Amino acid sequence: MKHYIKLLFILCFFITVSCSRNDDRASVNHLDFTSLNKLDASFDDVLNDLNIIDLKLPDTVFLGKIDNVISNDNFYILQDSEFANALYFFNKKGYFVNQLNKKGDGPEEYRALSNFVLINDTIKVYDRASRKVVKYLLPDLKFISYKNIDHYIFGTIYDENKEFILSISDEETSDVDYLGIIIHDKDFNILKNFSRAPAIIEASFTENLFIHDNNYFYSEPFNELIYKVEKDTLTPLYKIDFGSYKLPDEIVNISDPEEFYDRIRLGEYAFAIHHVNFTKNSLSFNFYRNLDFDNKLLGIYNMNTDKGGILRTENIFQEYLANPISKSGNHYYTIVYPSESETLDESLKERLKVSALNDKPLLLEYNFELKN
């Protein structure tokens, strides 16, 4: 259930980082988290728009370890990239529709289902192992075509109101830079890229890319900036200001991982914002505190009152909600599996109108709103 940080994050510090860029940051809005105080508001006060979807799986389909959820007008699409290497499609009432499970080396197959985007009535799956994109028709998932691409990507998003795809690439372009943030056309040809240092990119994941009001955004770890991404520009709009808890450059630039961990243990640090979400008046995000990668914290900031803090959790179920699997649209998503039913105490079951999980998982859709 917990979403563990990937090993690439641990390894990224072998490479020296230079974070200096030519971005115009004069107009960046600093969101004050310098004290890392807990919110006065309770968890229930800020939990918003909670929707419980009972996933109605046929007995022949087993839901593995879901690590990504994408929602659109027609489907919830659940991705298991670690075990089944498959996508599961559910309609908006939670009924199972179809699954994409075509592992192999053939033209209509993939070896590693890394990422996917929905474009009109098609789904394009990126196979990182084969460096190709496979295109299928929705909803029957009939094979259409495939295309080889000449660079690695590991995160990608698409909005139907845009003419381009936004991706993250760890393809090396020099000793000091990766391709970084890529603007792709709809056929995954590179239109433009914004180079970034290797450690910055290897500490970024799909959850660092997000869509809000039909605009693309990227949350950059270590400097904790939130950029608006357009076809030709990368504009910083917000900075999560951790103050003295920010990782200092002398730690970020350490090339030896053991020394890096030793330095982290000596202080109190907050870093690597991701899962950024905007609601009516609030911005929320996950981040890490010190070396506790197993438990992410969630910060919330009211954009009207310019006040924020760290969400307080009082039981395991609340911790699950504060550690979402993924974000899509303006909602977070997490799953409670049947084996985890004990995390739902009786008061929560009554509130959620859940008497028992039986043998079916629940998809939880929600966001957080800090009231004025």
Describe this structure in words.
The chain has 372 residues and is mostly beta strands. It has one domain (7-368): TolB, C-terminal domain (Neuraminidase, 6 Propeller), CATH 2.120.10. The protein has 7 helices and 25 strands. It has helices at 7-11, 43-46, 198-202, 249-252, 257-265, 316-322, 346-352, and strands at 29-32, 47-54, 68-71, 75-80, 86-91, 96-100, 113-119, 122-127, 132-137, 142-148, 155-157, 165-172, 178-184, 190-196, 209-212, 215-220, 225-229, 234-241, 270-278, 282-289, 297-302, 307-310, 326-328, 331-336, 362-368. The strands form 6 sheets. Strands 1-18-17-16-15 form a 5-stranded mixed beta sheet, with no helix packed on it. It has a 4-stranded antiparallel beta sheet with strand order 2-25-24-23. Strands 3-4-5-6 form a 4-stranded antiparallel beta sheet, with no helix packed on it. β11 and β12 form a beta hairpin. It is globular. The model is unreliable at 1-22 (pLDDT under 50).
